[in-house]
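Entry, Tuesday afternoon. Goal for today is a structural model of the target with zinc ion bound, before we commit to ordering more compound. Inputs were pasted exactly as handed over by J.K., no edits. I checked the ligand SMILES twice against the vendor sheet because last time a stereocentre got dropped in transcription.
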Amino acid sequence: MQALKRQIDSLSDGIMKFKQAADPPAVDAADRKVRSVRTEQTRFAIEGSYERFLVQHLKAAKRDYTDGERTEPLCSCANPYCELKRGRLPPEVFLGESTDEGIRDFMIQHSGDGRVLNEARDQWVEDAGVVIQTLTEALSILKANEPPETDDAENEAEDEAEDDAVDSELDDEPAPSTATTGD
Ligand SMILES: [Zn+2]
């Protein structure tokens, strides 16, 4: 997961660099992109947040399973003392050189599919992917030094007038493919 953090850091550095040379409209458009993922981005910058995320995810999954909101078992093993099924991160996870290596070692030894742990990892990677894609778009805008033809600010204004519920769809819009130049 260090690789994802490095990728995010390097995009942030690039954005800072290109911002200095870009014109205000491009900077504004890029800033809007960056702002939209600021909370998420902070999460990836903090030391130990991956481990905290895993712990929270497991607890929430256990709660949902107990409440009947989740039907799938947290792990497929037959062990009633399985840490995962109890909504806890197995101690073995922290014995590896990195958390992910610990997870891999645990999964090799564990008889179940450890489904909830895989789900948590997938979610983390997916969340990081959203941040990475959005920052990549912001960097492209700055490199091209012009805001995208369909600026998010205009879309937001229109959508708010129509229906608040469609706001989230904006996030799914494909990146403007105007500028993907190398360094
Ligand atoms: Zn298990």
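Helices lie at 2-19, 24-36, 38-45, 49-67, 99-109, 115-144, 152-162.
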